[in-house]
Amino acid sequence: MVCFRRSTWIGFVFYFLQGIVPSIAVSLPVAAPAGNTPGPQETRNQIGKSVLPLSFGLETQFERVFSFQYARATIDERNGRIFLALFRDNQVQVLDMKTGATRQTLRNLDRPEWVSFDHGHNVLLVALGNSRQFEIIPDLDPSKEYRQPTGLNPVWVGGSSKNGYFLLAGGVHILYRLDRGSYASTDWIALGDKVHDVALDASGKQIYLPLMRKGKVWIVDLATLRLLRELDLETCDGPRNVVPVSLEKKERLAVLCKNGLYFVHPDVSTPHRSWKFHHRPGSMASLVRGNLLIVSFPEKNELDIWDIAGKRVVKRIALDSRPIFLTSTADGTGFLVITNSARRQETRLIFYRISGPVPHLKKASNPPSTVLPEGPSNGKVKTPVKR
Fold first, then answer.
1. Does any domain span residue 9?
2. What is the residue-wise DSSP string for 123-180?
3. pTM (2 d.p.)
């Protein structure tokens, strides 16, 4: 009998301690490692000094909706226009940069894939993706348009009035130089690889070509179309975009790869990966004269703005559909994104402006006015929204 009572008492005590000890342990505070206590707003990526104040904002200047299709755009700041190439509609729409309203529509173009405007000759160049030629439209007058053969399907055309214009064509791309008067191809260099984007340096003397399969960047001389240097990016998987930037007061190339964002000196092939991505990026553009980079993530329906000096994300923009194209204004105070929604069968163009104080830039004497256009519908303008 005594033995039974002792075992009962021991079992009761064990049961009691089993319930109370975990409660005591959970209620005890866990000490943080010395010198590693984060501030109230600190995040893992907040390193260094930010270029922009955290209070800077984004304003949606306008939004346009079109039928679902492949689309690309070029910004003409000098004349306050955006040239939008609509692949399936076989047309290029000329949009007002402030309101998004359509100024002009150029029709009967054979699958326009890219557009560029030559200010020196007042000529619009259109790469026709479904033909082995491209369109030249002087004065935006359809009655004056003519075509030049390329031999391969063109996918990109661009350059400047000062340094001339170039055309990218073919599956494994060839870069052509175009004659300044007739725009006929005069010289070329074979790349032997797929190129997602083409970038010119600030001086206009070099062109940067990210070779996706080889994981390299070619630096080509614009005057001779000869290869100057080949930068081996080592662990970079599929380089997509190259943007010249200034990092720690030194010239660098920011290279967007599938697995991260790399920085490399244009004269020395020693890449350094600053950010590793968990989702595959789409494209990249420069903001605020190279102080910020904006990267699209199609799988997340998101845009991330990166502070280069501070090495952190300073703003994330959630989109309601997949971003397929991204480009910015020359001074980087505005950018546009094109998104596609298969579910809604629509393509959307959104033009943003950076609002609030922006260091290193003079305040505009006449800031762009905000217009309240018509409500959203197919091809209509959407009411601006502040973010």
1. no
2. EEEEEETTSSEEEEEETT-GGG-EEEE-SS-EEEEEEETTTEEEEEETTTTEEEEE-T
3. 0.78
